[in-house]
């Protein structure tokens, strides 16, 4: 069983992802409640069948430290949907500084975008406006909830309303 379950804090904010087994134990021990069962799936014991959880909510509020998304090359690619932010190709991807380092650009979520090698070379040491290459999407710092979708394993539609 490799399905994953979205765990919500008591205030319904996304907290983490856990295994179905762990989620079932939390529900069974009354430490959480099932918010949404997995469509049609059941967990079976010798004499009973239980609905398989897809989303659970903890009964007590857990004070979790700030969960941010680390600024990494792979996370920038994920945020930009693995496509060039200038021409939308998905081939030969690299990272581009919107404001070039030579002009004071820093490594930050709002200054780094995914670009193909061709567009990155064409833009060179210019801003997108100077190079006449507008960005398709403005770069933003992603939320932790967006990255929880990576663990959905086919549950993305069931989790959508809780991750927005």
What does this structure look like?
The structure is a single chain. With 164 residues, this protein is of the alpha+beta class. The chain has 2 domains: 4-66 and 144-163, no CATH class; 70-142, DNA Binding (I), subunit A, CATH 1.10.30. It is built from 5 helices and 6 strands; from the N terminus they run E-E-H-E-E-H-E-E-H-H-H. The chain has helices at 20-28, 73-79, 117-123, 144-148, 156-163, and strands at residues 4-8, 14-19, 32-44, 49-58, 93-97, 112-116. It has a 4-stranded mixed β-sheet with strand order 2-1-4-3, with helices on both faces. Strand 3 and strand 4 (49-58) form a beta hairpin. The longest helix is centred in the first third of the chain and has 9 residues, at 20-28. It starts with a strand and ends with a helix.
Protein traits:
164 residues; alpha+beta; 2 domains; four-stranded mixed beta sheet; two-stranded antiparallel sheet; 6 strands; 27% strand; elongated
Layout of secondary structure:
Elements: E1 4-8, E2 14-19, H1 20-28, E3 32-44, E4 49-58, H2 73-79, E5 93-97, E6 112-116, H3 117-123, H4 144-148, H5 156-163
Parallel strand pairs: 1-4
Antiparallel strand pairs: 1-2, 3-4, 5-6
């Amino acid at each position: 069983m490799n399905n994953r379950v979205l765990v919500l804090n008591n205030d319904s904010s996304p907290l983490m992802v856990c295994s179905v087994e762990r989620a079932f134990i939390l529900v069974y021990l009354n430490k959480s409640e099932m918010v949404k069962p997995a469509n049609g799936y059941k967990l079976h014991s010798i004499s009973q069948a239980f609905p398989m959880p897809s989303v659970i909510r903890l009964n007590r509020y857990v004070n979790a430290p700030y969960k941010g998304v680390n600024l990494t090359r792979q996370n920038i690619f994920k945020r930009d949907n693995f496509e060039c932010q200038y021409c939308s190709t998905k081939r030969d991807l690299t990272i581009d500084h919107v404001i070039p380092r030579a002009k004071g650009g820093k490594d930050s979520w709002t200054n780094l975008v995914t670009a193909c090698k061709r567009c990155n070379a064409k833009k060179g040491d210019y801003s997108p406006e100077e190079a006449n290459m507008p960005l398709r999407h403005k770069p933003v710092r992603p939320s932790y909830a967006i990255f929880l979708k990576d663990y959905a394993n086919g549950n993305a539609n069931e989790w959508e309303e809780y991750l927005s």
